């Protein structure tokens, strides 16, 4: 076997080995390029409210409502959802337009824009945008 043939065989083997490696690790490479997020469902919190009873007395009661940590309101709020793409279920985010209410003990009441079953992104390693694919930690 001459040197040219040997070099051609070595290059071909290395090329196919590299292609095999990239094929096997393609999902991991793709996931590493996505924004890494953590998400959680919002808790139900007791909020005090004042009302006047039948006899005209001012009273304080409590109501249970969906709440978000007030500190999360300093930035855009994104809701996590799943969608199928290329035969796999993947995570995406959508920008939530929420209406807020009362504040109590570090939580703010959510009046609309987020449902009880929705997961809200609480941290990310990069900037998010509407319909962005993410990797859930």
What's the SSE blueprint?
Blueprint: H1 3-33, E1 36-41, E2 44-52, E3 58-69, E4 78-85, E5 88-95, E6 99-104, E7 107-112, E8 119-124, E9 133-136
Parallel strand pairs: 1-9
Antiparallel strand pairs: 1-8, 2-3, 3-7, 4-5, 4-8, 5-9, 6-7
Can you walk through the features of this model?
It is a single chain. The protein is of the alpha+beta class and 137 residues long. It has two domains: 1-33; 35-136, conserved putative lor/sdh protein from methanococcus maripaludis s2 fold. 23% of the residues lie in helices and 47% in strands. It is built from one helix and nine strands. It has one helix spanning 3-33, and strands at residues 36-41, 44-52, 58-69, 78-85, 88-95, 99-104, 107-112, 119-124, 133-136. The strands form two sheets. A five-stranded mixed β-barrel has the order 1-8-4-5-9. Strands 2-3-7-6 form a four-stranded antiparallel sheet, with no helix packed on it. The longest helix has 31 residues, at 3-33. It is rod-shaped, with a radius of gyration of 26 Å.
């Amino acid at each position: 076997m001459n040197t040219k043939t040997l070099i051609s065989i070595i290059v071909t083997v290395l090329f196919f080995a590299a292609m095999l490696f990239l094929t096997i690790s393609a999902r991991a490479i793709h996931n590493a390029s996505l924004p890494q997020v953590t998400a959680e469902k919002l808790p139900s919190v007791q909020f005090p409210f004042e009302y006047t009873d039948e006899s005209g007395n001012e009273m304080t009661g409590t109501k249970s409502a969906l709440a978000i940590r007030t500190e999360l309101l300093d930035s855009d709020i994104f809701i996590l959802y799943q969608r199928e793409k290329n035969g796999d279920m993947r995570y995406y985010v959508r920008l939530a337009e929420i209406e807020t209410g009362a504040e109590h003990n570090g939580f703010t009441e959510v009046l609309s824009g987020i449902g009880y079953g929705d997961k809200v992104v609480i941290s990310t390693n990069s900037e998010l945008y509407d319909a962005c694919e993410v990797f859930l930690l």
